[in-house]
Structures are given as C-alpha cells and as structure tokens.
Design brief:
The chain is α/β, with parallel strands linked by helices and about 475 residues long. Helix content is about 40%, strand content about 20%. Helix 4 packs parallel to helix 5 and helix 9 crosses helix 10. It comes from Streptomyces bullii. Belongs to the aldehyde dehydrogenase family. Keywords: Oxidoreductase. Its EC number is 1.2.1.-.
C-alpha cells in the first residue's frame, strides 16, 4: 500500500484536503484499516472545478490522435500492472484475486476501445431539402464533466467513464466511492504517466458527497454528469442537475430476471446462473435477482444450483482457492440477511446457506432459496449479495408479466433451446440488455444501460462516446 497515492489529484498535483481531513479505507475481509486518504470538502471541489474548466479549451483543441495515444499508453500500463492493481482492488473491496485480475483486463479494454473511437468522431454535410442552404455538422465535447463511480467495480467503472470523456475532449472531476478510493487514485497516476495533461482529470475522494457534488452540479460550470449507483441517489442527482440543465448519464439499479424454460439445457442454465448471480459476490447491478424456472424443471434446477453454490469456497480474496470474498461492509451484509430472513418467514425453503457466519469480516455464504413468496422483500429489492431466489412459473405470458413487474429494467437472462421463443421473450422483456443462453452481457464493445428506473443513456460500444459530445449545425447559403 505504500506506493499507492492517498492524496487528492487536482490540476496534475497530489494535494491534501484543504482542511486536512482524511477518511479510512477498510479491508472488508478483516475489518482492519488499510490506510487513510484525503477527505475532500467543498473548497477542494471548487479548486478541482477551476482546474477542469481552465483545461477544457486547450484539451478540446487537442488532436484526436493525441488523445487516442494517451488512452492506448494507459491501456498498456494497466495491463503491465495487472497483479499490482488486482491486489489493490481485492484489499479495498474484497473480490477474489482471480476476479480482480479479470476486472483489470476488463477495465483496460475500455481505454483501448475508446482510443480507437477517439479518431472516429465525425460530422457530415449535405444539401438541405429546400436547396437554399448546405448543412455542415460537427461534433464537439460537451465540456467539463463530473463522474461519480461506485465501489463494486472500482477500476472498470472509472475507465468506462474516463475513456469516452478523454476520447471526446472533455475535462473531468472523478468522485469515487468512499469505500474504494485507492483504485481511482492509482488510475489517475497511470493516466498522468501516460501523458494526460494537467487538469484534464481531477480525482476528489470524499466522505462528504453531498457537500462536494451539489455545488458543482448547481454552479453552472459542470456541463455533464455521469453517475453509476443506486436509483435513489440517481433521482436526487437528477433534481440537482435540473436548475442548470446539466446533461446526464445514469446507470442505476437493477432487478434482473433469470428465466429458465422447460426446454433449456439445464447444465448451461446452471453455468449461466453461476455467472449471472455470483460475479462479484452478487454485488453487481447486472446480478440475477429473481430466478423464474418452469415448474417442470424447477426442482432439478434448484438442486443443481444449490450443489454448485454450496461447493464455493468463502474467504479472504487473497487466499488461494477462494471463490467468494466478503461483501463490501457490515451494512451490506446485514441488508442481505434481512432479505433472506424475510423470505424464510414468508415460507421460503433454504437449500444452502442463509445464515451470517461468525468471525471477522463481512462474509455471507452463497444461498439458494426455493418456494419464495412473490411478496417477499427480495423480489422488489436489489439484493447485492450471493442469494438466488427461485420461483416456479407455468407459461410464457405469465413469466413475462412477472419479470416486467418492476420499476427497474437493466438486464434480463433467458435460457431456452428454441430460437423463436428466445428472441420473442427477449423482445418482450422491458430491459436494456438481454443475455440469451449466457449469464454475462458486459463488454466494452457493447452499449451498457437500462430502461425505466435503471437509467438514462448508454456506456461503452460505439454509442458510448456520444454521451460526451454535442452536435453543432452550421447553415451555409448555396450560391
């Protein structure tokens, strides 16, 4: 931990918080404090804003190829430091090292992808229908941005926002989650090493999010907010953006249905369920939350899934052979236990897990519940833990109705060997993404985002850079 920055990164310099405040970073596997980082206040936010605003004009004029090469160099540095970054991530948020190494590769790929998109920002021209004017279209950066990232994928959520902002020519302030600031600070150091000019990226770590972010959003100089987090906080931020009409991208909560039809390959369905449920210990917005399984195969699916879940090894992410690390904190674990207890009190059967273990750390065992009452709280709550709740269904219309009966619409999963059914059900789901016979949908080359209260806009893919660009139309008279 000694080489990891712990100060704020503002205007290309590492500085302490103006009032000297710090916040602790805990290891969720032990409860011990790893280190302390600077805890920014409103004064620090203003200084970061000044740096981003002052750097914007020059950065916007930087050649696309130059921006592209900075991202490409950062991509290569990240890969070269895979083990170092993976250990850092595991220390501050708990995921097993194998998963952390996977996230490093995933995070780096956003920089490679947007390094290639940086040189493909185009406009257009053409004669307007009335023949009097020619239309010239150009695209330009939206301006200084505020990027707010969550703790569950601390490196990848940073690169998924920073990559398109850099490619588009936007300056930015990054506010990472207070539980996991170290990955973001390490990323800032990497970008500085890769040649990113001073002031383009500023990282403000803080436990005082409201005091730091609200003045930025209401002040009129920040022109773009990109937020990943809960729907509840997203609503609050949208209200703060309204006064100055800040452009927003929102990647919010999920309540993903996982649908298994009677003709599904159960081996593939269970494999998919393990990925969709257990990636990042279930602490993912894409995590399968509600398992709808056709009644004719529900018992067999539950038996197989319980066997697989029960075989997973729980422990500190740095220990060899561990499959499931701790949850992020005691409050997160308590929420999961409350949801399981509520389901059991309503008649659910516990096939495996279901009880908080004794000892240090925020561990919770992989859990499978069957005969879950549809009125259970975990049916309309984002669980964010290793709990699979199984409900039986009888026909296609019924399961679509139940799957869509939620204010969220991020992702859904469908398992069937019938192509017609698979496409029909996928199109019937009110979600932004569907995994058809797969439990993994996230990819830097694909647009990530949801509908309804799961968010606004898309991240990644060819459209990811659009969130950071504006169109300008110039009318030129035809002579």
């Amino acid at each position: 931990m000694t080489d990891t920055p712990t100060q704020l990164f503002i205007g290309g310099s590492w500085v302490d918080a103006a009032d000297g405040a710090t916040l602790p970073v805990d290891d969720p596997a032990t409860g011990e404090i790893l280190c302390h980082v600077a805890d920014a206040g409103p004064k620090d936010a203003r200084v970061a804003e000044d740096a981003a605003v002052q750097a914007q004009e020059r950065w916007a004029r930087t050649a696309p190829r130059a921006r592209s090469e900075i991202l490409r160099r950062a991509y290569e540095i990240i890969l070269d430091r895979t083990d170092e970054l993976a250990h850092l991530m595991t220390a501050e948020m708990g995921k097993p090292l194998a998963e952390a190494r996977g996230e490093v590769a995933y995070a780096a790929e956003f920089f490679r992808w947007f390094s290639e998109e940086a040189v493909r920002i185009d406009g257009g021209n053409g004669l307007l229908p009335d023949g009097r004017n020619r239309m010239l279209l150009s695209r330009r950066p939206v301006g200084p941005c505020l990027l707010i990232t969550p703790w569950n994928f601390p490196l990848a959520m940073g690169t998924r926002k920073i990559g398109p902002a850099v490619a588009a020519g936007c300056t930015m302030i990054l506010k990472p989650a207070p539980q996991t600031p170290l990955s973001s600070l390490a990323l800032a150091a990497i970008l500085q090493e890769a040649g990113l000019p001073d002031g383009v990226l500023n990282v403000v770590t803080t436990s005082r999010a409201g005091e730091v972010c609200e003045p930025l959003l209401r002040g009129g100089r920040i022109r773009k907010l990109s937020f990943t987090g809960s729907t509840q906080v997203g609503r609050l931020l949208l209200a703060q953006c309204a006064d100055t009409v800040v452009r927003t991208s929102m990647e919010l909560g999920g309540n993903a249905p996982f649908i298994v039809f009677d003709d599904a390959d159960l081996d593939k369905a269970v494999d998919g369920a393990m990925v969709a449920k257990m990636r990042n210990m279930g602490e993912a917005c894409t995590a399968a939350n509600r398992f709808f399984v056709h009644r004719s195969v529900a018992d067999e699916f539950a038996r197989r899934l319980a066997a697989r879940m029960g075989a997973l090894v729980v422990g500190p992410g740095t220990r060899d052979g561990v499959d499931v690390g701790p949850l992020i904190d005691a409050a997160g674990r308590a929420k999961v236990q409350e949801l399981v207890t509520d389901a059991v009190e309503r008649g659910a059967r516990v096939l495996v897990g279901g009880r908080t273990p004794e000892g240090p750390g925020c561990f919770y065992p992989p859990t499978v519940l069957t005969d879950v009452d549809p009125g259970s709280r975990l049916m309309d709550t984002e669980i964010f833990g290793p709990v699979a709740a199984i409900l039986a269904f009888d026909d296609e219309d019924e399961v679509l109705r139940r799957a869509n009966d939620t204010p969220w619409g991020l992702v859904g999963y469908v398992f069937t060997q019938g192509l017609d059914r698979g496409l029909r059900v996928s199109e019937g789901l009110e979600v932004g993404m569907v995994g058809l016979n797969t439990g993994l949908v996230s990819n830097p080359a694909a647009p990530f985002g949801g509908v309804k209260q799961s968010g606004l806009g898309r991240e990644g893919g060819r459209v990811g850079i659009d969130e950071f660009l504006e169109y300008q139309y110039v009318a030129v008279p035809v002579r």
